[in-house]
Amino acid sequence: MSDNGGSAVGLLSYETLVHAVAGAMGSVTAMTVFFPLDTAKSRLQGVVNVILTTPMWVVNTRLKMQGVKFRNEDLHQTHYRGIFDAFSQIIANEGVGTLWNGTLPSLVLVLNPAVQFMIYEAMKRKAGRGGRKISSAKIFLIGAIAKAIATTATYPLQTVQAILRFGQYKSDAEGGGVMGSLSNILFLLMDRIKKHGALGLYKGLEAKLLQTVLTAALMFVVYEKIAAVTFRIMGMNKKLKH
């Protein structure tokens, strides 16, 4: 019994407490110092993910559009028997590089979450100004607005991304590489505006907002709940009313 008591005293001793606090401070310091590197790593992971998955998205888009009746006579039907046949036909008829159509818009769209979080944090700080508590309902609303703004701001690029992936477009852009891709994007944006007006860049936006806004809003509410519990366990105050 005395051994158990001694173990308990040892566990709660001043020396143990000092080591625990020192370890916690070390972790916080390391996280603060290496956070920029972690952020850069996340962006790099996003770039690698885009490069590796773009061929699958190109094939996915082609298969989705198969069987669609086009009003534009310049567009023609494709006939793929499946994923592997689509890969084979695209490489044989259009070249391997076609599998990476839309890569540049996809790389730019990696910034979408950054825009979303920037708007969210700015709105949250404004809502909590003067020590005001922010309810979960307000967090939900702020998260929804932030995602809606980020999605609306980047949606024209998503439209161009889909056109590039589908592949059946005419472009006056010359050259290859980044400059050629940038010229293609600018040409398609201007061509879309010329044919359908500025609103033509936002066709299908309603469906995209329904798909992403509610998910993002719920994610922010869950995030704040988890953060509040974590801060409470750590003995820190977080001004968020649930």
TrEMBL record:
Transmembrane annotation, as ranges: 17-37, 139-157, 209-231
Solcar repeats: 14-126, 134-229
An annotated GO cellular component: peroxisomal membrane
Compartment list: Membrane
PROSITE patterns in the cross-refs: SOLCAR
Membrane topology recorded in Swiss-Prot or TrEMBL: Multi-pass membrane protein
Molecular-function annotations in GO: ADP transmembrane transporter activity; AMP transmembrane transporter activity; ATP transmembrane transporter activity; coenzyme A transmembrane transporter activity; FAD transmembrane transporter activity; FMN transmembrane transporter activity; NAD transmembrane transporter activity
InterPro entries: MCP_dom_sf, MCP_transmembrane, Mito/Peroxisomal_Carrier
Keyword Membrane: yes
Listed Pfam families: Mito_carr (PF00153)
Record keywords, A-Z: Membrane, Repeat, Transmembrane, Transmembrane helix, Transport
UniProt key word Membrane: yes
Protein name: Solute carrier family 25 member 17
